[in-house]
Write a structure and sequence with these properties.
Blueprint: E1 3-8, H1 43-54, E2 59-64, H2 93-111, E3 117-119, H3 146-162, E4 168-175, H4 176-184, H5 188-193, E5 196-200, H6 214-223, E6 227-232, H7 242-260, E7 264-265, E8 271-272, E9 281-282, E10 295-296, H8 298-307, E11 315-316, E12 326-331, E13 336-343, E14 349-354, E15 367-376, E16 382-390, E17 393-398, E18 402-410
Parallel strand pairs: 1-2, 2-3, 3-4, 4-5, 5-6, 6-7, 8-9
Antiparallel strand pairs: 9-10, 11-12, 12-13, 13-18, 14-17, 15-16, 15-18
Pfam family, one: Glyco_hydr_30_2
InterPro entries: 6GAL-like, 6GAL/EXGAL, GH, Glyco_hydro_b
Organism: Ceratopteris richardii (Triangle waterfern)
Length: about 425
């Protein structure tokens, strides 16, 4: 839990009823072309960002969903009037990259917060950012064609260099099944300006995980020498019991690390309102001083099965078989092996594994202590009795509808 992504808001047009959903109306810092920057804006999101840093977050990314309304063709931060059409007015290309980099620079100068990367697009080719008068709630969004992104990225690179910022460019924050097509449309100089590929691995249903085309995206990114972040995911269109959705999240993470081989994994918004499966924590969204009652979801504990034990710097060892139900990692600093087993079925499952390739610090016939933690319908990252194995083989029986994390370390007698 060491990454915080910060949304640089475009800022709604006060002359339009943009029907932005509650708490999706992001303040912008520059309300007009001739108006000075208002650095007091967006104080609530900034409080969370700086609070995350104070509590141990170490990696920060800024991202944009839409340019300010006055830079758009429609005058709205929710998209163009025509379905799937670009909304940034090309006449404001330079103004847009200046806006993004000025925010990045101000956070560095004023609050000593360095954004490691900036993501100028969000789901740019998916086509759903438009002014939809039939939709009761909207959010900021902007379509960018491949040619528009190709035009804009070098300008953003120049603006960062001009302001002597070390912030890198990440792109394209598109759904993973569209990412290969975007990469094929980029020139060499544009690809050289990009430091990392961000993808969203949403699928329309949990039974359609193959739609994410993770292997193809990984191969395309490797071919241009770029690492991958899975920068946004949530339980889109998921149904069922809380534990079923949570285990679906676990399977999704396992696929993203085994097949996509992402070097970072980010949930969408940790805090959401009750009434859906979105969010790790849920509460009513009202501005008052009264203490809130919080609902801690099963997804929170399933994510904990990964994040509490697979720490920054751990090595992931991708597997082909059981890619959706098994994750193997090793922590060279702690001299530990961490294995995650996911069983979404209604029956017990046996898992066996040879850990010799993961941990050169273990020797033949070493006794290994396995510390176990499990989340199920009735358990929340509960500690289980430890097991003892003789290196290099381990075996475990995993309960139905559960996720179990095994932390292996040398037993000191």
């Amino acid at each position: 839990m060491n990454i915080a992504r910060y949304n640089i808001g475009g800022g709604a047009n006060p002359e339009l009823n943009e029907r932005l959903r509650p708490f999706g109306c992001m303040p912008g810092f520059k309300p007009g072309p001739t108006v000075a920057y208002d650095w007091s804006a967006d104080s609530r999101q900034r409080t969370i960002l700086l609070g995350a840093r104070d509590r141990g977050a170490t990696v920060f990314e800024a991202f944009s969903n839409s340019p300010p309304h006055w830079m758009t063709l429609s005058g709205s931060v929710t998209g163009n009037t025509r379905w799937g059409q670009d909304n940034l007015d090309p006449a404001y290309d330079v103004a847009f990259v200046d806006y993004l980099t000025e925010v990045v620079k101000h956070y560095q100068d004023q609050w000593n917060l360095h954004f490691e990367s900036i993501a100028p697009f969000n789901e740019p080719v998916e086509g759903w950012w438009n002014i939809n008068k039939e939709k009761t709630t909207a959010q900021e969004g902007c379509n960018f064609s491949i040619s528009s992104m190709r035009r804009l990225i070098p300008k953003l690179k120049d603006a960062l260099a001009h302001k002597k910022l070390q912030t890198k460019i990440s792109a394209f924050d598109s759904w993973s099944q569209n990412t290969t097509r975007i990469l094929l449309g980029m020139d060499e100089d544009v690809l050289a300006a990009i430091d990392r590929i961000n993808v969203h691995t949403y699928v329309f249903h949990k039974s359609l995980e193959n739609w994410a085309k993770r292997r193809q995206v990984r191969e395309a990114s490797e071919s241009v020498g770029k690492k991958i972040w899975m920068s946004e995911y949530g339980p889109l269109n998921w149904h069922g019991e809380d534990i079923d959705v949570a285990l679906g999240l676990g399977r999704h993470i396992s696929l993203d690390l085994n097949e996509l081989q992402a070097s970072a994994w980010c949930y969408w918004q940790a805090l959401e309102m009750p009434g859906s499966f979105w969010g790790l924590i849920q509460t009513s969204f009202t501005y008052d001083v009264e203490p809130k009652s919080l609902i801690i979801t099963k997804q929170y504990y399933v994510l904990m099965q990964f994040t509490k034990w697979i720490r920054p710097g751990c090595h992931i060892f991708p597997v082909e078989n059981f890619a959706d139900s098994f994750l193997a990692s090793a922590d060279p600093a702690a001299k530990q092996v961490v294995l995650v087993f996911i069983n979404a079925s209604t029956t017990f499952k046996h898992f066996g594994f040879d850990v010799s390739l993961l941990a050169p610090w273990f020797k033949t016939d070493d006794k290994l202590e396995a510390t176990l933690f499990r989340t199920s319908a009735l358990e929340n990252h509960e500690r289980l009795p430890s097991l003892i194995f003789t290196f290099p083989s381990i075996m475990i029986l995993v309960n139905s509808k559960s996720i179990t994390t095994m932390v292996l370390s040398k037993l000191i007698s």
